[in-house]
Specification:
Blueprint: H1 5-26, H2 33-40, H3 42-75, H4 78-89, H5 96-107, H6 112-119, H7 133-157, H8 161-169, H9 174-185, H10 187-202, H11 206-212, H12 219-228, H13 233-264
Helix pairs in contact: 1-13, 2-13, 3-7, 3-10, 5-7, 5-11, 7-10, 7-11, 8-9, 10-13, 12-13
C-alpha cells in the first residue's frame, strides 16, 4: 500500500483534482443553468451528436483497416514484423500538426490526389476531399489507426495457433475457425482499441479544425471557442463535463457489448 501511495498522490494531483475543479466550475453559483443550455440549445446538441457520429465512423473505419493488419503482424516472421512495426510506428515520430498539413496538400482541389486522378482520366473536376467530413475522417483515421492495431495485435498474440489448427483438423473451414475461435478470443483487444480510438476521436481538435475548414465542428472546437473568444469558462466546463459523461457512457457500452458478444459466441 505504501509503495503505491506516491503514484496515487500523483494521479490525484494531475487527474482527480482538475476533474473536480472542472465540475465545480460548471456549477458556479450553485446553478445548473449551463448544463440546461448545453442540453436544450439545438446548436450544442447537434455538435455533440455530430462529434459522436464522426467518432463512431472513425472507430469503425479504423477497426476495419486495423484488424487485417494486426492479424498479419501476429502471423508474420521476424522481417515482416519488423517492417510492419516500423511502418506502423513511423507516424508517431512526426507531429500531428505536420501530418495534418501534409493531408491538406494531398487532398486540396489542386492537390496531389486530384491531380493524379485527373491525369489518369478518372475524373474531370476535382473531388471535394478537403473542408468536409471526408477530409476529417481521412486525417483522423490516419492518426488513430495505430491505436487500434496495437491492442488487437497484442490480443492476437495471446491466441494459441493450435486452437485454429485443431478446429480445422476437425473439419471446420478456415473462415469458420476464424469466426468461432480466433475472433472471439481477440475481442478484448478489439474492445480496448475501439474504446481508445473513440475516446481520442471525441477530443480531437487540430485535425478537424484544419481539414474541416470550419465546416465540420467538433465538441472540442466548440469548447475552445467558448474559452478563447467568449471567455465563458463555466459554460465551457459544463460542455466538457457533458463530453466526459458521454465518453464514460460509450466506454461502458463498448465493454458491455464486447462481453455480450463473447458470451453469445458458441
Amino acid at each position: 500500500m505504501l509503495l503505491g501511495l506516491p503514484a496515487l498522490l500523483l494521479l490525484a494531483l494531475v487527474f482527480a483534482w482538475p476533474v473536480l475543479r472542472l465540475l465545480s466550475l460548471s456549477v458556479e453559483g450553485g446553478t445548473l443553468a449551463h448544463f440546461e443550455k448545453a442540453a436544450l440549445d439545438g446548436l450544442y446538441v447537434t455538435v455533440l451528436l455530430d462529434s459522436l457520429r464522426i467518432a463512431a465512423l472513425v472507430t469503425a473505419i479504423c477497426l476495419a483497416l486495423a484488424y487485417p493488419v494486426a492479424f498479419w503482424l501476429s502471423r508474420a516472421g521476424r522481417l515482416g514484423l519488423a517492417l510492419g512495426m516500423f511502418a506502423l510506428l513511423l507516424p508517431f515520430w512526426t507531429s500531428v500538426l505536420v501530418r495534418t498539413y501534409a493531408w491538406m496538400v494531398l487532398l486540396g482541389r489542386n492537390g496531389i490526389v486530384n491531380r493524379m486522378l485527373r491525369d489518369a482520366g478518372w475524373i474531370e473536376a476535382p473531388l471535394p476531399l478537403l473542408h468536409n467530413t471526408t477530409g476529417v475522417l481521412i486525417g483522423m483515421v490516419h492518426v488513430l489507426l495505430p491505436y487500434m492495431v496495437l491492442p488487437i495485435y497484442a490480443a492476437l498474440l495471446r491466441v494459441d495457433p493450435d486452437l485454429s489448427r485443431a478446429a480445422e483438423g476437425l473439419g471446420a473451414p478456415a473462415w469458420r475457425s476464424f469466426l468461432r475461435v480466433t475472433f472471439p478470443l481477440s475481442l478484448p483487444g478489439v474492445s480496448a482499441g475501439c474504446a481508445l480510438v473513440f475516446v481520442l476521436s471525441l477530443g480531437f481538435f487540430i485535425t478537424p479544425a484544419l481539414l474541416g475548414g470550419g465546416h465540420v465542428i467538433m465538441i472540442s472546437m466548440l469548447i475552445e471557442q467558448q474559452v478563447r473568444e467568449f471567455l465563458e469558462w463555466p459554460f465551457a466546463a459544463a460542455l466538457s463535463t457533458v463530453l466526459l459523461l458521454a465518453t464514460l457512457a460509450i466506454y461502458a457500452l463498448i465493454g458491455r457489448l464486447t462481453r455480450g458478444a463473447r458470451l453469445a459466441t458458441p
